[in-house]
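User: Please predict the structure of the protein below. I'd like the answer in structure-token form so I can feed it into my own downstream comparison script.

Assistant: Understood. Taking the following sequence of 224 residues as input:
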Amino acid sequence: MQPQWNPHGVTRHEAENLIVEYLVVGPFQENSYLLRRPDSTQTVLIDPGDEVERLLAQIEREKLEPIAIINTHAHLDHIGAIVPLQQRFELPFYLHDAELPVLQMAPLAARMFGVPAPELPTVDRALQIGEPLQLAGLDFELRFTPGHSPGSVTFLVGGVAIAGDVLFYGSIGRTDLPGGDYDTLIQSIERQLMSLDDETVVFSGHGPHTTVGRERRLNPFLQG
């Protein structure tokens, strides 16, 4: 059975030391994430893609204190709310260096898809694979998962994986955009995600969340 997914509201997942909330935003129905500890209002935003008013409403509703924006990658549909959020809260923006060309191509991608071009954010800090990242009292492990885009990063935190557009419920990320490569993507999934425990919850850039075990057993792209 497909897990619950609320494209018009807020989907919430609670673990012992982590609260994950995500809103589905914009014309590409992208999942924008808010992560925090249960005992804190400090919040990390991941891939805030669009509809900043809805994100702000959720922040105000929960009385949250955003402290940083970290992105799995920089495709057009994952960056649209970054600048307005930075302007509101003075937030640093973290991105892997290999994604900088993708970020710069966002205006061209917007013309390709016939949508308004977002204002491009400045990257304040580079995500470093192998270096620990602690934000809002949360410890993030970074895994390099290129293939959908050249600098895609998966964040492991609190027993879950925030995987961007690398792995979906029953599918995988597209590889036909500039910088994408199918073999690289499959290798990233097999080495960096399928090595996790079956119970690990995977939160994707689009669609409902899933688990490593489910995708290992049933994802048609990972069989054989």
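That's the full token string. The mean pLDDT is 95.
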